[in-house]
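Thought: the user wants the 3D structure for the chain below. I'll pass the sequence to the structure tool as-is, report back what it returns, then summarize two notable features.
Action: structure_tool
Action Input:
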Amino acid sequence: MTIQFIDLKAQYQHLKPAIDARIHAVLEHGQYIMGPEVKELEQQLANYTGAKHAIGVSDGTKALLIAMMALGISAGDEVITTPFTFIATGEMIALLGAKPVFVDIDPRSYNLDPSLLEAAITPRTRAIMPVSLYGQCADFTAINAIAARHGLAVIEDGAQSFGASQHGKKSNNLSTIGCTSFFPSKPLGCYGDGGACFTSDDALAKKMREIRTHGQDRRYHHPIIGINGRLDTLQAAVLLAKFPSFPAEVTARARIGARYSELLQDVVRVPVISTGNSHVYAQYTVEVAQRDAVQAALSEQGIPSAVHYPIPLHLQPAFAYLGLGVGSFPQAEAAAKRVMSLPMHPFLDEATQDTIVAALKQALR
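Observation:
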């Protein structure tokens, strides 16, 4: 038996008629850039999250960039974020000439620890960019309260958490701007790169729409500097075909994640869901000692695994200029040495899950 880490083929077979029809419609009308499917998708995204505006963009990384550009973040500014995330989070801050200021994580949720946030705020701080890692939202109740006291914007890096909720509100509608990714492996994924920005602020929405299209407000008229950040029509079409099944897939992810936790709770450190949160398990991530040996043992049994993320951002060579060495963020560094993600997707059946669990138990003996 071949076990898939994320089974996109099974999803495609399940949705093939709808996906094929949507793609064929784009091939027929030929509007490959900013075609009608983009606007249709944006309306569905806004309706789903409850945000007033959804702006389809080329990828999750550009979503972060566009959000910060809309807020006017530039050289000399500081943006607070977590060191335990994909490089894109810190990378886009640095690309604008701003300084990423890291705050350590809560070891239970792996998300930015709000109790450490206020100490990191300086007169140069312009925004806070928490990451909703692995599919669970950061503590936006606490983060937003601190931001409000200091007059700061909050950008949710929700690249892994589309479909999750906190106290009844959807991820990407929990702060000033939400940003997500539709990379193929995400909970809602297209067949290439894709992403979106969300806001209920009309002025920010207008600015983000202009930024994604080279800063233009009408053809060949550019009041601001922008980028090429448009979402391809074909990718919007794929997402539209997948969207009707997405709520059921979110439910399946929650069920499969809960079953993993039940089977593994006495074996490894399993995910902890914070009060008021739901989890979409973009990754089902556990903690193990001697991770390399455990991964090797799983691989011998034909079971894939992955590590998100083995090197915190402050220890990446690209951020060496910040002068933050080992020991700067002990919780992030400890997690980076121990986290390991198991196969996770909405089509994972119980028999396959039992095989994965048995192999992990054997590897840990």
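Final Answer: Structure generated. The longest helix spans residues 8-29. The chain has two domains: 8-244, 245-363.
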